[in-house]
Amino acid sequence: MAAAGTREFEEDTCLMPPQGVLSDPERSTASPTAMPQVKHPTSVRDALDVTLDVRIVLGGTRISLADVRRLEIGSILLLDRGVSEPVDVLANQNLVARGELFVLDGRYCVKISETIQGPTPPANKGTQAVPDSQQA
Predict the structure, then answer these.
(1) Which among 31, 59, 90, 110 could bridge 81 via Cys, Cβ 3.0 to 4.6 Å?
(2) Per-residue pLDDT tens over the stretch 53-95
(3) What is the CATH number of the domain that holds 53?
């Protein structure tokens, strides 16, 4: 049974060392010709059906643990981005695009305005929290 937030995979699709093969080749008794073949995708097309976890990041902030413990209903956190700034689009925690947030039929949507090539961390411009004394 898989833990919460994880998925179980079929044994023939996992990329794992063949049974009986040790990580230390000097201690291995299996001959190279006796190793079973690991199933690999035959083309890029096979990988296109893989689902990714996509998240939209409006912004962030950094606060102390003490401030986290003081959070209550009505507390306000000031994010590091303005309303007109683009949001980050993350696929499996990797920045892949940026876009404009809008509402359509009562649901949030993102219109992609920039695509990102290669590994790039999400934008982080320095953050701050609104002290309790400044909250309305």
Answers:
(1) 59
(2) 999 999 999 999 999 999 999 999 999 999 999 999 999 999 9
(3) 2.30.330.10
Nearest to 62 by CA among 89, 81, 80: 80
Give the count of beta carbons closer than 10 Å to the beta carbon of residue 87: 21
Give the DSSP letter string of 64-131. Answer: -HHHHHT--TT-----SS-TTSPEEEEETTEEEEEEEEEEETTEEEEEEEEE--S--PPP--------
Q: What is the pTM of this model?
A: 0.54
Whether 28 is in a domain gets the answer yes
Q: Is residue 6 part of a domain?
A: no
Q: Are 126 and 92 in contact (CB under 8 A)?
A: no
Structural domain boundaries, residue 62: 11-125
Tell me the two tokens of residue 79: 């994010």
Cα separation, 122 vs 85, in Å, equals 13
Tell me 14's DSSP state. S
Q: Is there a domain that residue 3 lies in?
A: no
